[in-house]
Design brief:
534 residues; mainly alpha
């Protein structure tokens, strides 16, 4: 068992977990979920489960410490007749130290497992510029599954306790289950304590409606992952692994197909995670909202990996932009550049922190940092030229809400997304730049229509007409579903209103589609969920 898509997980582990959960007394169901979660984590990461335990105990203890300080502060303020501001300031300093200690443990573990070699190489390179040679040798550690995801969840809990938006939890089991719940431990979504902690402890029964809706959502996700994403890997992997063997046309197609593959892989895994949560009566936060209908780069990130974006907004962007230095900078910039452009200077500084963090969170490599700063530059540039774009459109009498203009914006954004994903997937920044250069300077449209694409990956299975037809059919279905959702229609509610035979016909259709058209077996190399590596 390596992921949610392993046969043993789908055929044995998950059914067993659901069955035991369903027959257990309500007050013990949370314990069933916790045991299942730790078994799943141990199965995938073995002794690295110690890292999860350390993170759990760290935020549990730190949260209790913050809670005690909050109670002491409130009592002292209530008893004091004067000097209440000084009392709050004194306790605030103590609370910051305690919170910082908890954050240091959690993010220190993340840095040790994921970024140690990267930081060491950066230091070695910087010292090399001044003539100092320091070939740092560090041990290589495998990272626990999902550490990038549950670390952010742990951090949000501590910060929320510090801010007073959630109370410090005295129940260690609830804290452990919040952090380790197996449907979201691998790739998220990155939930907040207030969103899921109480739901996980509630012990909701396994109802027929939740079982049907949850498995239907899982089948939809399995279709995305196994029918589209895993099938496209046979084309995408060889192109990015040996890009010098192909012209710009093949590379451009590889970038487009990788974008589709990544979306189907990640959003498909989210569908499976949310479907599993639904079976247990737990509503996990949505992570995607039709991102390819976005009209701007900023709009794309409001629809893609939503829980990461909101985490970065709430815990990096707002604190940085509202800090005293940036407030002063905004005030000075307003006087110099006016109310339109003045605030952009401070907000750009906060955005830089957000997008640098976004890139670094995805991976320890220069291509990931470039990926983050790529969107930073585009979003800031978009804010700067927006007033000019409005004036030009008015002067040319172009309605910015017309169907044609919206189509232009969506097409432009799709190009931006594909280029960004090219760098994201490339084997290093140098490779990304070389591939982009080939797309621009060595584009050969003939290679896209002369059958060359079916020869890619000849050492493996490659991509043939049958594969392409299946992918196009499923992508067309996804497009139709996306258009319906974009109009505000809840497909889940619509399906729930169907007659029973129609609902079960849909369920069996999706089930058979995955069985018949899924990319598995000896002809296909297994592909683990792609975001699990981040």
């Amino acid at each position: 068992m390596t992921s949610y898509f392993s046969f043993i997980f789908l055929a044995a582990f998950l059914p067993a977990a659901v069955a035991v959960y369903a027959i257990a007394p309500r007050r013990a169901r949370w314990a069933v979920l916790l045991v299942a979660s730790y078994l799943f984590f141990f199965w995938l990461s073995r002794e690295l489960i110690l890292a999860l335990w350390v993170s759990t105990l760290a935020i549990y203890g730190t949260g209790l410490g913050l809670g005690a300080l909050i109670r002491q502060r409130d009592s002292a303020v209530k008893a004091a007749k004067s000097g209440k501001r000084e009392i709050r300031a004194r306790f605030a300093r103590k609370m910051k130290i305690v919170m910082a200690a908890g954050l240091l443990v959690n993010f220190g573990l993340l840095a040790a497992f994921k970024y140690l070699h990267f930081f060491a190489s950066v230091i070695d390179g910087a010292l090399g510029l001044v003539g100092i040679t320091l070939n740092t040798e560090l041990p290589v550690w495998a990272a626990p599954i999902g550490i990038s995801f549950y670390t952010l969840m742990a951090g949000s809990y501590l910060i929320d306790v510090y801010r007073g938006t959630v109370a410090a939890d005295r129940n260690l089991g609830r804290v452990a289950l919040f952090l380790g719940f197996f449907p979201q431990i691998m790739e998220g979504p990155i939930s907040r304590y207030g969103q899921t902690a109480d739901q996980l402890m509630a012990g909701h029964p396994v109802t027929r409606a939740n079982l049907y809706a949850g498995t239907l959502r899982m089948l939809w996700g399995l279709g995305k992952k196994m029918i589209v994403a895993d099938r496209l890997n046979a084309f995408v992997k060889p192109v990015f692994a040996d890009y010098t063997a192909y012209d710009g046309g093949i590379i451009a197609l590889g970038a487009v197909l990788y974008t589709v593959q990544l979306y189907c892989d990640f959003s498909g895994t989210m569908d499976v995670a949310l479907g599993m949560g639904r079976i247990f009566g737990v509503s996990l936060p949505e992570n995607f909202r039709q991102p390819f209908f976005s009209r701007t780069a900023a709009g794309f990130w409001q629809r893609w990996h939503i829980t990461l974006g909101t985490w970065l907004r709430d815990y990096i962007y707002y604190p940085v932009s509202l800090s005293k230095p940036l407030k002063k900078l905004t005030s000075k910039a307003r006087k110099r550049f006016g109310n339109r452009y003045g605030p952009l200077l401070a907000s750009s500084a906060a955005l830089f922190c957000v997008w640098f963090g976004n890139g670094l969170w995805h991976g320890a490599g220069s291509q990931y940092i470039f990926f983050g700063l790529y969107y930073f530059v585009l979003i800031v540039a978009g804010s700067l030229i927006e007033p000019t774009a409005v004036k030009v459109a008015e002067r040319l009498r172009i309605s910015r809400e017309s169907a044609g203009y919206r189509a232009f914006q969506i097409a432009r954004t799709l190009v931006i997304i594909v280029v960004g994903e090219l760098f994201f997937r490339a084997e290093g920044l140098d490779a990304g730049l070389a591939m982009f250069g080939a797309m621009v300077c060595d584009f050969n449209g003939a290679s896209l229509v002369d059958g060359s694409i079916f020869g890619v990956g000849a050492a493996g299975i490659g991509l043939d007409g049958h594969d392409l037809a299946i992918v196009l059919a499923w992508v067309a279905l996804m497009l139709v579903v996306g258009l319906i959702r974009e109009r505000g229609v809840s497909i889940t509610e619509r399906v729930a209103a169907w007659p029973l035979p129609a609902r079960w016909a849909l369920w069996y259709t999706l089930f058979l589609a995955v069985i018949i058209f899924g990319a598995y077996g000896t002809a296909y190399a297994p592909v683990d969920p792609m975001y699990a590596q981040f």
